[in-house]
Amino acid sequence: MKFQRELTAAVLIPAVLAILVAAPPWAWALLVALAATVALLEFYRLIEAAGWIVPKPAGVGLFLAFVAGAHLASLLALVVLAGLTLLALPTLVMFASPREAVLLASSASSVFATLYVALGAGAMVGLRAIGWQPVVFLLAIVWAGDSAAYYVGRRWGKRKLAPIVSPKKTWEGLWGQLGAGLAFGAVAALLLFPAASGATGASGAPRTLLLGAALGLVVSVVAVVGDLLESTFKRSCAVKDSGGLLPGHGGLLDRLDSLLYASPVLLFVLAFVPGGLKP
């Protein structure tokens, strides 16, 4: 169907924003847990497509516990769960008695997939703990950049960015994505973080614009890397899309790849870099 991509976005984006802004933080944590669980299961299917073993029930259970720990802001729980994932999943792979040749690959891929999705999902929950504004900032940059890359690449794209990993991506699309990230970062920072502008007097607004633009550019670069990284996972498993849940977009892992990669970076900047943007 024509405009499948646009119609899917038109339905999902308002629903996601409504839960993010109007609902309590636990509702956002639940939404992230549900969406990321589907993405994790899609990742597990990629691993199985490569002929490896995944202890899925244990992996999903550990992942959900990780998201709960992020919602409760328990650093101890997150550290313990990360260690438990590192120990438990390879042990379960061993007891599944797979062929000897796939033991290491199965263990490594199971742990990586679980922690990869858990880290990104936990960071999105952690951003919501700061306020809904940082999450909107992240979504605006990633979604705008993704759309700019798609439409600019389709209209003007000629030079392939990574032909082996992602044949449709072009350098022209990349410049469109980075430009959109820079512009949306600046505007979104001014609109979403007024306290940062007012805190430094007359110079506050230009400073906020500059910080937003810089952070928008950083998030866009990281989002591109996350997108390409997920493409390498699919290529290595000889799979085109992680799933078909979202018409015109592929699977949830395909849609969340940039967010999973960029959200920990944004959380680190907002939490630990002095003089940054604050709601």
Number of extended strands? 2
Structural class of the secondary elements?
mainly alpha
* End-to-end CA span: 41 Å
The dominant shape is globular
Q: How many distinct helices?
A: 10
Number of domains: 1
What helical percentage do the residues reach?
Answer: over 70%
Approximate strand percentage: under 5%
How are helices and strands ordered from N to C? Answer: HHHHHHEEHHHH
Arithmetic mean of pLDDT = 89
- Strands in their spatial order, largest beta sheet: 1-2
Biggest sheet architecture: 2 strands, antiparallel
Rg over alpha carbons: 19 Å
Low-confidence stretches: none
Write a concise keyword list for the protein shown above.
single chain, 279 residues, mainly alpha, two-stranded antiparallel sheet, 10 helices, globular
Question: What does this protein look like?
Answer:
The chain is mainly alpha-helical and 279 residues long. The protein has one domain. It has ten helices and two strands. It has helices spanning 4-22, 25-49, 56-71, 75-95, 103-130, 132-156, 171-192, 194-198, 204-236, 252-272; strands at 160-162, 166-170. A two-stranded antiparallel ribbon has the order 1-2. The longest helix is centred in the C-terminal third of the chain and has 33 residues, at 204-236. The radius of gyration is 19 Å and the shape is globular. The model has no long low-confidence stretch (mean pLDDT 89).
